[in-house]
């Protein structure tokens, strides 16, 4: 993408292409993944590196600080261990700031602001790719009890640093949309409430103004793919409690984009958003935005998307009917399932198929009674014959195909396809199978 020359983020957009950490283009990040990058940043003369504590299982938790000005910004990532997008983003941002100050910043910016960044708050959860920490605690619900060492570290950092601005950086599931549209919410913002009545004091107003500024910039890059998270007060959550401490607290959720399995679009948008906020703060440009600008951002709508949606497909064993069918894929296991069946007109698919004139069936099984090697061509022929699973008690099936294969120990009962079932099925018309869905992967058979 080429930045618009009038955008405050234009220079950082250009720098991102050459200065981001290419080795962090992964679906997930652990402490060992980021260790080489952390070492390179740590060695920079302008960086102050501080070990702020250790995780429940003894892994180091580190804070990088840059600048020595009175305005304090604190950002933390991977509070949930399986939400790694912004970890790459903040390391990219530091690399860009250390290599060459972007054009939009005042020349004395380091004497006006101090950036504090904790790139991975939950390394134990990151190691297992789980939301929770090594104790099994969701630390974002630990702001009051402080039962987790990682939660106590964040609490202590807020008390010690007294940040003016706090960036709480997360990932959201890929199925959020912007309002009722079909657009994925690639980025979602929230200025969390600090009271159940959702009061807007000075710091929260500033957070909403900064979000409005970031939204305006990001709209150039990802138009209509930015949502506004629900601000229901969460008594136990860190963002809400930190907002109550007087910090202008901003939640940024990284979401999905089309054809972007590693969320690199959201990764880059985080960098541009953070830089826009910094520039806007130091130039006071955020003051031109109003509450109306914040609330103009569409709602971040949950469960508005699925991976595959098949519309108006014929179904039913006892009585034929037409329905929509959705398929969702678990990003961790890569296993898929039938999400919902029925009238799904308010649900959109990353891939949408018109099923009119066709019929969906779970397919039939093939009993493996002799040694068989299942390569791509052999599998394709089985699928064209309506076979979607193999009954292999004697372990005589050798799988050499690149496509997912369903192997069972006994034949399946002739039962209806239901939500929660594995997404292996055949779509056919009067002439036979047209396509197969194999664990959420679409495969044309004609």
Quick structural gist:
The protein has helices at 10-19, 31-42, 85-99, 123-128, 149-161, 202-221, 238-244, 264-283, 291-295, 376-384; strands spanning 47-54, 60-66, 71-77, 113-118, 165-171, 177-178, 187-190, 226-228, 248-254, 300-301, 305-315, 321-329, 336-342, 348-354, 359-361, 364-367, 372-374, 387-391, 397-399, 407-408, 424-429, 432-438, 441-444. With 446 residues, it is α/β, with parallel strands linked by helices.
What does it look like?
The protein is α/β, with parallel strands linked by helices and 446 residues long. The chain has 2 domains: 10-301, Aminopeptidase (3-Layer(aba) Sandwich), CATH 3.40.630.10; 306-444, Urease, subunit C, domain 1 (Roll). The chain contains 10 helices and 23 strands. The protein has helices at 10-19, 31-42, 85-99, 123-128, 149-161, 202-221, 238-244, 264-283, 291-295, 376-384; strands spanning 47-54, 60-66, 71-77, 113-118, 165-171, 177-178, 187-190, 226-228, 248-254, 300-301, 305-315, 321-329, 336-342, 348-354, 359-361, 364-367, 372-374, 387-391, 397-399, 407-408, 424-429, 432-438, 441-444. A hairpin with a 5-residue loop joins strand 11 (305-315) and strand 12 (321-329). Helix 1 packs across helix 3 (85-99) and helix 2 runs parallel beside helix 3. The longest helix has 20 residues, at 202-221.
């Amino acid at each position: 993408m080429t930045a618009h020359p009038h955008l405050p983020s234009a220079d950082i957009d250009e720098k991102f292409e050459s200065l981001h950490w290419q080795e962090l283009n992964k679906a997930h990040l652990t402490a060992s993944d980021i260790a080489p990058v952390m070492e390179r940043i740590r060695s920079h003369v302008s960086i102050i590196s501080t070990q702020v504590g250790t995780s429940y299982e003894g892994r180091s938790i580190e804070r990088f600080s840059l600048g020595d000005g009175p305005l304090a910004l604190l950002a933390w990532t991977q509070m949930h261990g399986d939400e790694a997008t912004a970890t790459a983003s903040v390391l990219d941002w530091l690399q860009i700031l250390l290599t060459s100050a972007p054009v939009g910043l005042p020349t004395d910016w380091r004497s006006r602001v101090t950036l504090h960044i904790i790139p991975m708050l939950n390394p134990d959860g990151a190691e297992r790719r789980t939301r929770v920490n090594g104790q099994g605690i969701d630390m974002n619900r630990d702001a009051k009890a402080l039962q987790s060492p990682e939660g106590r570290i964040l609490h202590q950092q807020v008390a010690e640093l007294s940040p003016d601005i706090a960036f709480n950086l997360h990932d959201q599931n890929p199925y959020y949309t912007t309002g009722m549209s079909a657009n994925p919410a690639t980025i979602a913002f929230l200025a969390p409430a600090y009271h159940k009545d959702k009061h807007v004091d000075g710091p929260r107003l500033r957070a909403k103004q900064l979000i409005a500024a970031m939204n305006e910039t990001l709209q150039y890059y990802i138009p209509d793919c930015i949502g506004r998270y629900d601000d229901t007060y969460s008594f136990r959550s860190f963002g809400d409690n930190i907002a109550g401490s007087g910090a202008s607290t901003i939640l940024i959720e990284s979401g999905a984009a089309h054809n972007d399995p590693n969320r690199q679009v959201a990764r880059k948008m985080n960098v541009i958003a953070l830089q826009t906020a910094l520039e806007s703060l130091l130039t006071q440009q955020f003051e031109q935005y109003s509450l109306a600008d914040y609330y103009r951002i569409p709602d971040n709508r949950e469960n508005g998307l699925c991976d595959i949606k098949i519309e108006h497909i014929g179904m039913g064993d006892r009585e034929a009917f037409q329905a929509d069918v959705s398929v969702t894929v678990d990003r961790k296991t890569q296993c898929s399932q039938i999400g919902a069946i029925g009238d799904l007109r308010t649900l959109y698919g990353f891939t949408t198929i018109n099923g009119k004139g066709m019929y969906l069936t779970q397919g039939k099984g093939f009993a493996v009674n002799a040694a068989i090697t299942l390569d791509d061509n052999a599998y394709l022929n089985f699928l064209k014959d309506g076979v979607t699973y193999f009954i292999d008690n004697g372990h005589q099936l050798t799988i050499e195909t690149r496509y997912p294969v369903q192997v069972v120990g006994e034949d399946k009962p002739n039962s209806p396809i239901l939500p929660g079932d594995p997404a292996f099925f055949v779509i056919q018309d009067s002439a036979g199978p047209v396509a197969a869905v194999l664990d959420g992967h679409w495969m044309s058979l004609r």
